Amino acid sequence: MESSLWLVPLMIALAASWSSTLVQGQLKNGFYSSSCPKAEAIVRSAVESAFKDDPSIAPGLLRLHFHDCFVQGCDGSVLISGPNAERSAPQNLGIRGFEVIDAAKTQLEASCPGVVSCADILALAARDSVDLSNGPSWAVPTGRRDGRVSSSSQAAVLPSPLDSIAAQRQKFAAKGLDDHDLVTLAGAHTIGQTECRFMSYRLYNFTATGNADPTISQSFLAQLQTLCPRNGNGLKKIPLDRDSHGNFDTSFFKNVKAGNGVLESDQRLWDDANTRRIVENYAGTIRGLFGFRFDFEFSKAMIKMSGVEVKTGKDGEIRKVCSRVN
């Protein structure tokens, strides 16, 4: 297996090259190479500093980018503050990482005023977060501009932990993403945590008879009920990946296959024939090989998602402060 390790960087590079054609003419690799040569290094430094203090910031930044792209496209609108802005919507409860984006933006404005968008900072920070969590890295096409509108009512399009496969499929398809993208991007749950309040309904009163969700394996159900007791603290955090929630790997898919998915929406990936096949491909038993495949496919899916409904050229603006429009 060691003899094939040299293929991994090549595969990731090819993924970036292939996927960049999806946004060709809008975004490009190295967009800031002349206008702000240190842009990516500055973002990386801000993410590394935050990650050193708190590694759990990595899944937070990844989720922040995902939530940005699903509402009005990848335009940094999730960063705008206000009582009626996206970040105040119930669907965005618990999103975090704003201070990391702000720190990077402050440094970028000092180095290259009015050049680097908040939307691009989000895309770069998400990539760096995965890389720091022992996941893949990829070339991020840049050149996004920031949106001027942020509305909490539009956050209803975000995928929910309660979504059926049909609902997930519809929401992803609306963004030009297919089943393969859906399953691959769900694999981001290999890192991070959720709160008991988002999944405890599966443990005690899921059916009309008061039973637990039958798709949860019995051994895992007992563990979850210990972690999230009936009428317990709904804010208590539990890992989304029980085996290695701080490490970006394929154990998430093995958990789903075994009935050990924490969120209902994740476990539902096993219910549908098409999504199940993709889960099985990532949850293979040949150590290493399937991790390489997931790294390759995740990089492609992230590049594809980060090109959703982007604003480029003269659309939007380059915000001076990410939390408010100019």
Task: Provide a descriptive summary of the structure in words.
With 326 residues, this protein is an all-alpha fold. It contains 13 helices and 2 strands; from the N terminus they run αααααααβααβαααα. It starts with 6 loop residues before the first helix and ends in a 21-residue tail after the last helix. Residues 1-13 and 15-25 have low confidence and may be disordered.
Order of helices and strands: HHHHHHHEHHEHHHH
Helix count from the secondary structure assignment: 13
* Rg (C-alpha, Å): 19 Å
First-last Cα distance = 53 Å
- Class from helix and strand fractions: mainly alpha
Low-confidence stretches: 1-13, 15-25
Number of strands: 2
Strand order of the largest sheet: 1-2
Beta-strand fraction estimate = under 5%
- Please tell me what the overall shape is: globular
Helix content: 40-55%
Mean pLDDT value: 90
Largest sheet: 2 strands, antiparallel
Catalytic activity: 2 a phenolic donor + H2O2 = 2 a phenolic radical donor + 2 H2O
Active site: 67 (proton acceptor)
GO molecular function: heme binding; lactoperoxidase activity; metal ion binding
Binding site for Ca(2+) 1: 68, 71, 73, 75, 77, 86
